[in-house]
C-alpha cells in the first residue's frame, strides 16, 4: 500500500469514527429529560399540499394546523408530558416555494407549553424574472441589471465586460511588467519583461524615486507587436532608487503599470599586512577589492605626498609615529571606495639594564643581555644601555655559572631595570646544627634551635623534633632563606627527652640535612615539687598517668607494625591523623601554659584558674584519642537492598505522602540501583586510650563504585533504628542527616568510601541489614508513581452520556493529533528514542574524560568545544539527558586547568620568570572562584604556597 492510499484509508477511518461519535452524542442528548433546546429535522419538501415534521420524543398526539393560523401563531399547543413527539400536517397554498423550513421551538425546563413555532423563508416568488427587460431572464442573463449584456450581444474585446455572457472570450487586459532583479549592484544589469496585448503601443520611462522634481531619462519606445518582450534597463551606474513606468495603448484604452528597482554600491576592500613595524623596518600591505565592476585600479597616497599604484606595496619609514596612507580603489564604471591605512612605527625607548648576583647583590660583568634582535654585554659595573622598541619583549640574561633568566617586560617609556641572576646550583645545601648541643639540658618553654646552612640559591629549611626513643619526628617550623648564614627556629616543649634535626631544600630540589642531636628539657636528673606542672604529663596529683607525648609517639611507632585488618581500621578511623592532631594540641597547651607565667594583665588567682582549664583539656585527650586498636572479628561481603528493604525505606522516607504509589517508587529505586556497586567491610574493634580505658565499636567501611551519577543523585545510607539510634552513630566520612536513620553521603573526589562506626559491638550478620540506596533528589514522587489510572479512572460511576462525551473527546483528539505535525514528532520520538546526535555527544564526553585522565588538557578542551556546538543542535529532551554529564565534565575541566596553571606557575617561579608567574597566579585566582568548595580544598594549600613564594621573590 503506497503512502497516498494509506493516508486516504486513515482519513476515511478517522472521519467515520468522528461521525459515529457525534451521532451517539446527539442521541444521548435527546434522550435526556428537560433539555433546554430541541433540534428539529426536516425532510426535503415536495410541492405538495401536506408536509410532515418530526420532533423527537414519545408520540403523544397528532394535530392539524392551517397555514394561516400557523403563521399568525394562533394555534399554540399544550402537552401533558415533557417527553413528546408532535406530528404536524401543514397545508401549503399553491405557488408557495418552501426553500427553508427551519423551525424555532422555545422551551424551558419543566414548562410544557410551546410558546411559538415559526416558519422561516416561506414566501411567494416569481421564479425567473427579467429585470433589465432585454428579453433574457435571470437564469441565462449573466448581468440582469445591464441590457447591453446578454447572450445575444456581440463581444467587444478587452472592454473589461463579458458582453456575450461567454467566459471564453477575451474581456480584460493582460498587461503587466516584471524585472529579473530589483536590487542590483552598481554596474550590473537587469532585464524588464513586458506582458501586453499584441499589436498595442508600449513605451517605457525611467525616473529617480523621490519627492518633487526628479530627473527622468526619457521614453524608451518598444518597437514590437508581439508580447511578451524583454529589454535591458539602462542607467544603472548611479546609486539610487528608480521607478519604471510602462504605458500600453490599445485602441482607445490606455493602461499604465509601475515597478521599481534599486542600485547600490556594494564594493568592499580588504587590507592585509603588518601595521606595527620598527623604525627602519619594512612591511608589505596588500589590498583586495570586490563587489564592483572589474578591472580595479589602486592609488596609494603617501604621507609625504607621493602617489603609488597597484594592489601590493612595500613601505619603510625612518621616523617613529603613526603614518597615514590614503588608498583609493576605482572600478571600470568609475565607482570608488576609499580607506585610510595607519602604519604605526614603534618608538625606540632607552632602557638601562643592570645585572647583579642574587645572593651577594654584586654587579655581574660580561653578562649577555638579549632582546629582539639585539645582543649586548654588560660592562664591569654590570650595566648595559639599549634602545628597545615599544611593546612587550622577552629579555634573556646569560652568564656562565648562573641560571639563564628570561623575563617579559612591556616597554612604553624610558626604563631602568635590574635583573638578579642565581648561581647555577647542582649541589645539596650544607646544613650544620649548632644548639642545643648533643645531650644538653635546656629549660622548658620556648626553645631556640640554632643552625647554619650554605647554598647558592633560595633554600627552605624545616625543623623536626621527636621523642628520643621514638622513630617519629614532628615538623615544628618552616622558613625560607635567600642567603647562606646562621639562623634560629623556635618551638615550645615541656619536660622530656627529645631529638632534633634540620632539613633544607633549594629551589632546584637539592636537599641537605643536619645530624640528629639529642637533648633534655628540664633540670638534669631532677624534677622537684616546686617546679611548674608538666602539662604534657600531669600535676603531681596525677603522677600515676603516663606522659602523653611519650604515649602518642609510641602509638605512631606502632602503626607500621599493624596487621592488615588493623591497618584497614586505622585508615578508616584516621588513627594517625588524630594522634598527630593530639600532639599539636599538647604543643599549643604547653605554649599557653608557658605564656601565663609572663602575663601581667591578670592576677595570680586568675592564672591558676586558666592553668586548671588547660589541665582539664589535657585530661580530655586521655579519653578521646585512641592510641591502640585491636580487631575482635571482621567480615567482607557484597549485598544489595531487598524489595522489603526498599519498601521499608519508602514508607519511612515518604511517611507523609498518603497518595504515593509505593510499588512504583520501589521499582524506580531498583532501576537506579544499577548505577551503584557496593562492597562492605565490617570490623569489631576495641579502641584503647592513654588512660587504659577501652571502647567497643562496630566499624563500617563501604566502598562505592558509582557509574554516571548525576548531580541530583545521592547515595543514602539506611541505618534502621532497631540497630542503632542517632546517639550511637559517628560518621568519619561527611554525611548529612535526611531523616531519622537516613543519611546522605556526598562522595568527595579523592575519597571512594563511606566510613562510620556504631558505639556498640554488633553481631556481624546484623551489620548486613545496613544498606545503601540511590535517590534522585529532584525527582518528584508523583511523577515517578504515575500510572495513568489517576488521569482517567474507570473505578467511578460513568453514565452513558458521560461515556459518549469521553469517546468524542478521544475521537476528536485522535483526528487532530493525526492531522498535525505533533503525530509525526511524537511518533519519531517513540520510534527513534535518543537521537544519534545525543549518542555522539556522549562519545565526545567519554573522549574528553579519557584525555583528562592522561593529562591531555588541550585535547580535552578542543573536544569540549565540539560538545558545546553539538549540544546546541539537540532537541530539549536529548539535552536533558546529557546536561548533568556535561556539567560534571566542565567541573573536571576547571580542576584539570587549575592544576595545569599551578604547574606552570611553579616552573616560572623556579626559573625566576616573575612576570609570567604573576600572570599565571592571576589566572589561578579567577579559576579558583569558580570551583566547588570540595575542589577548592584540593588546591588551596598549593595556591597559598605559590603566593608565599611570589611574595619572597626579589624583583
Write up this protein:
- The structure is a single chain.
- This protein has 955 residues and is α+β, with helices and mostly antiparallel strands.
- 28% of the residues lie in helices and 33% in strands.
- It is built from 17 helices and 50 strands.
- The strands form 14 sheets. Strands 34, 36, 37, 39, 40 and 41 form a six-stranded mixed beta sheet that branches.
- Helix 3 runs antiparallel to helix 5 (575-596) and helix 7 crosses helix 8 (662-672).
- The radius of gyration is 51 Å and the shape is flat.
- The two termini are 86 Å apart.
Largest sheet: 6 strands, mixed
Shape: flat
Termini Cα gap: 86 Å
Helix content: 25-40%
Would you count the extended β strands for me?
50
Our count of helices gives: 17
Strand content: 25-35%
Low-pLDDT residue spans: 1-9, 25-67, 70-126, 525-541, 785-806, 815-834
Instruction: Report the average pLDDT across residues.
Output: 75
Radius of gyration: 51 Å
List keywords for this structure.
single chain; alpha+beta; 50 strands
Could you provide a short overview of the structure?
By secondary structure, this protein is of the alpha+beta class. It is built from 17 helices and 50 strands. The longest helix is centred in the C-terminal third of the chain and has 35 residues, at 876-910.
Topology:
Layout: H1 3-31, E1 50-54, E2 59-65, H2 67-72, E3 77-78, E4 85-91, E5 96-98, E6 103-105, E7 113-114, E8 117-119, E9 122-124, E10 176-179, E11 183-185, E12 191-195, E13 201-208, E14 216-221, E15 229-232, E16 240-250, E17 253-264, E18 268-272, E19 276-277, E20 282-290, E21 297-301, E22 307-309, E23 312-316, E24 321-330, E25 336-345, E26 348-357, E27 368-371, E28 374-377, E29 383-389, E30 391-398, E31 405-411, E32 415-421, E33 430-435, E34 440-442, E35 445-454, E36 459-467, E37 474-481, E38 485-493, E39 496-506, E40 511-513, E41 517-521, H3 548-558, H4 564-573, H5 575-596, H6 604-624, E42 628-637, H7 643-653, H8 662-672, E43 676-688, E44 694-706, E45 713-718, E46 729-731, E47 735-739, E48 742-745, E49 753-758, H9 764-767, E50 771-776, H10 781-785, H11 800-818, H12 821-832, H13 836-853, H14 857-873, H15 876-910, H16 914-930, H17 933-952
Parallel strand pairs: 2-4, 11-17, 19-25, 26-32, 34-41
Antiparallel strand pairs: 1-4, 3-7, 5-9, 6-8, 10-12, 12-15, 13-14, 13-16, 16-17, 18-20, 20-23, 21-22, 21-24, 24-25, 26-29, 27-28, 27-30, 30-31, 33-35, 35-38, 36-37, 36-39, 39-40, 39-41, 42-43, 43-44, 44-49, 45-48, 45-50, 46-49, 47-48
Helix pairs in contact: 1-11, 3-5, 5-6, 7-8, 13-14, 13-15, 14-15, 15-16, 15-17, 16-17
Amino acid at each position: 500500500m503506497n503512502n497516498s492510499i494509506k493516508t486516504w484509508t486513515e482519513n476515511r477511518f478517522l472521519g467515520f469514527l468522528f461521525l459515529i461519535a457525534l451521532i451517539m452524542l446527539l442521541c444521548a442528548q435527546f434522550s435526556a429529560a428537560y433539555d433546554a433546546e430541541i433540534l428539529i429535522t426536516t425532510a426535503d419538501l415536495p410541492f405538495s399540499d401536506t408536509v410532515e415534521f418530526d420532533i423527537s420524543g414519545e408520540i403523544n398526539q397528532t394535530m392539524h394546523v392551517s397555514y394561516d393560523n400557523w403563521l399568525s401563531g394562533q394555534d399554540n399547543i399544550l402537552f401533558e408530558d415533557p417527553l413528546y413527539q408532535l406530528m404536524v400536517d401543514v397545508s401549503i397554498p399553491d405557488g408557495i416555494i418552501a426553500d427553508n423550513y427551519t423551525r424555532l421551538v422555545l422551551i424551558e425546563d419543566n414548562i410544557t407549553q410551546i410558546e411559538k413555532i415559526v416558519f422561516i423563508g416561506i414566501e411567494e416568488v416569481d421564479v425567473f424574472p427579467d429585470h433589465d427587460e432585454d428579453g433574457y431572464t435571470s437564469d441565462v442573463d449573466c448581468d440582469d441589471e445591464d441590457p447591453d449584456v446578454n447572450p445575444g450581444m456581440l463581444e467587444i474585446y478587452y472592454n473589461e465586460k463579458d458582453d456575450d455572457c461567454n467566459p471564453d472570450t477575451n474581456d480584460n487586459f493582460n498587461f503587466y511588467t516584471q524585472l529579473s532583479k530589483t536590487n542590483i549592484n552598481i554596474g550590473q544589469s537587469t532585464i524588464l519583461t513586458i506582458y501586453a496585448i499584441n499589436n498595442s503601443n508600449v513605451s517605457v520611462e525611467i525616473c529617480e524615486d523621490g519627492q518633487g522634481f526628479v530627473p527622468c531619462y526619457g521614453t524608451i519606445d518598444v518597437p514590437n507587436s508581439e508580447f511578451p518582450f524583454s529589454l535591458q534597463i539602462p542607467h544603472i551606474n548611479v546609486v539610487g532608487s528608480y521607478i519604471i513606468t510602462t504605458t500600453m495603448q490599445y485602441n482607445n484604452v490606455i493602461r499604465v503599470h509601475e515597478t521599481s528597482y534599486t542600485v547600490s554600491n556594494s564594493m568592499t576592500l580588504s587590507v592585509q599586512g603588518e601595521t606595527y613595524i620598527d623604525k627602519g623596518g619594512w612591511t608589505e600591505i596588500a589590498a583586495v577589492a570586490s563587489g564592483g565592476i572589474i578591472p580595479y585600479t589602486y592609488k596609494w597616497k603617501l604621507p609625504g605626498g607621493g602617489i603609488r599604484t597597484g594592489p601590493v606595496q612595500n613601505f619603510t619609514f625612518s621616523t617613529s609615529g603613526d603614518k597615514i596612507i590614503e588608498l583609493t580603489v576605482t572600478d571600470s564604471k568609475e565607482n570608488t571606495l576609499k580607506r585610510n591605512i595607519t602604519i604605526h612605527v614603534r618608538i625606540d625607548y632607552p632602557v638601562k639594564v643592570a645585572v647583579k648576583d642574587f645572593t651577594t647583590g654584586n654587579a655581574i660583568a660580561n653578562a649577555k643581555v638579549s632582546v629582539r634582535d639585539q645582543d649586548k654585554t654588560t660592562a664591569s659595573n654590570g650595566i648595559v644601555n639599549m634602545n628597545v622598541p615599544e611593546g612587550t619583549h622577552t629579555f634573556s640574561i646569560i652568564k656562565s655559572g648562573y641560571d639563564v633568566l628570561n623575563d617579559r617586560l612591556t616597554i612604553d617609556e624610558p626604563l631602568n631595570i635590574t635583573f638578579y641572576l642565581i648561581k647555577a646550583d647542582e649541589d645539596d645545601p650544607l646544613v650544620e646544627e649548632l644548639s642545643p648541643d648533643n645531650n644538653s639540658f635546656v629549660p622548658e618553654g620556648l626553645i631556640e634551635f640554632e643552625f647554619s646552612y650554605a647554598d647558592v640559591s633560595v633554600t627552605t629549611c624545616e625543623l623536626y623534633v621527636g621523642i628520643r626513643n621514638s622513630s617519629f619526628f614532628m615538623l615544628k617550623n618552616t622558613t625560607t632563606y635567600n642567603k647562606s648564614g646562621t639562623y634560629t627556629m623556635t618551638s615550645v616543649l615541656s619536660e622530656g627527652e627529645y631529638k632534633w634535626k634540620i632539613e633544607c631544600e633549594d629551589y632546584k630540589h637539592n636537599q641537605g640535612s643536619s645530624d640528629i642531636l639529642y637533648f633534655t628539657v628540664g633540670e638534669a636528673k631532677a624534677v622537684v615539687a616546686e617546679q611548674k606542672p608538666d602539662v604534657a604529663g600531669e600535676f603531681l596529683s596525677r603522677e600515676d598517668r603516663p606522659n602523653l607525648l611519650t604515649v602518642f609517639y609510641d602509638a605512631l611507632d606502632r602503626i607500621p607494625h599493624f596487621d592488615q585488618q588493623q591497618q584497614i581500621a586505622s585508615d578508616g578511623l584516621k588513627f594517625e591523623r588524630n594522634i598527630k592532631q593530639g600532639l599539636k594540641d599538647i604543643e599549643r597547651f604547653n605554649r599557653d601554659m608557658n605564656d601565663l607565667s609572663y602575663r601581667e594583665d591578670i592576677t595570680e588567682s586568675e592564672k591558676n584558674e586558666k592553668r586548671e582549664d588547660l589541665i582539664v583539656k589535657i585530661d580530655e585527650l586521655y579519653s578521646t584519642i585512641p592510641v591502640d586498636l585491636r580487631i575482635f572479628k571482621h567480615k567482607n561481603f557484597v549485598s544489595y537492598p531487598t524489595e522489603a528493604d526498599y519498601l521499608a525505606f519508602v514508607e519511612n522516607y515518604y511517611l507523609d505522602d498518603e497518595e504515593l504509589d509505593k510499588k512504583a517508587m520501589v521499582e524506580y529505586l531498583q532501576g537506579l540501583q544499577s548505577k551503584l556497586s557496593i562492597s562492605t567491610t565490617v570490623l569489631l574493634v576495641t579502641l584503647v586510650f592513654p588512660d587504659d580505658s577501652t571502647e567497643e565499636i562496630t566499624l563500617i567501611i563501604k566502598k562505592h563504585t558509582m557509574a554516571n551519577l548525576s548531580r541530583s543523585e545521592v547515595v543514602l545510607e539506611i541505618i534502621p533504628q532497631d540497630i542503632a539510634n542517632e546517639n550511637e552513630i559517628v560518621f568519619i566520612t561527611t554525611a548529612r542527616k535526611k531523616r531519622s536513620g537516613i543519611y546522605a553521603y556526598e562522595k568527595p573526589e579523592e575519597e571512594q568510601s563511606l566510613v562510620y562506626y556504631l558505639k556498640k559491638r554488633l553481631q556481624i550478620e546484623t551489620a548486613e541489614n545496613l544498606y545503601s540506596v540511590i535517590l534522585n533528589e529532584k525527582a518528584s514522587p508523583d511523577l515517578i508513581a504515575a500510572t495513568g489510572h489517576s488521569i482517567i479512572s474507570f473505578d467511578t460511576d460513568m453514565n452513558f452520556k458521560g461515556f459518549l462525551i469521553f469517546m468524542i473527546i478521544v475521537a476528536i483528539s485522535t483526528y487532530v493529533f493525526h492531522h498535525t505535525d505533533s503525530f509525526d514528532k511524537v511518533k519519531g520520538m517513540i520510534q527513534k528514542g535518543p537521537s544519534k546526535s545525543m549518542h555522539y555527544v556522549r562519545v565526545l564526553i567519554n573522549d574528553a574524560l579519557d584525555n583528562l585522565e592522561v593529562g591531555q588538557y588541550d585535547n580535552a578542551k578542543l573536544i569540549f568545544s565540539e560538545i558545546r556546538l553539538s549540544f546546541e543542535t539537540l532537541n530539549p529532551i536529548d539535552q536533558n539527558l546529557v546536561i548533568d554529564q556535561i556539567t560534571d565534565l566542565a567541573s573536571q575541566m576547571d580542576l584539570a586547568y587549575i592544576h595545569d596553571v599551578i604547574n606552570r606557575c611553579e616552573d616560572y617561579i623556579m626559573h625566576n620568570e616573575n612576570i609570567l608567574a604573576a600572570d599565571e597566579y592571576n589566572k589561578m585566582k579567577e579559576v579558583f572562584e569558580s570551583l566547588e568548595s570540595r575542589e577548592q580544598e584540593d588546591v588551596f594549600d598549593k595556591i597559598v604556597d605559590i603566593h608565599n613564594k611570589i611574595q619572597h621573590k626579589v624583583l
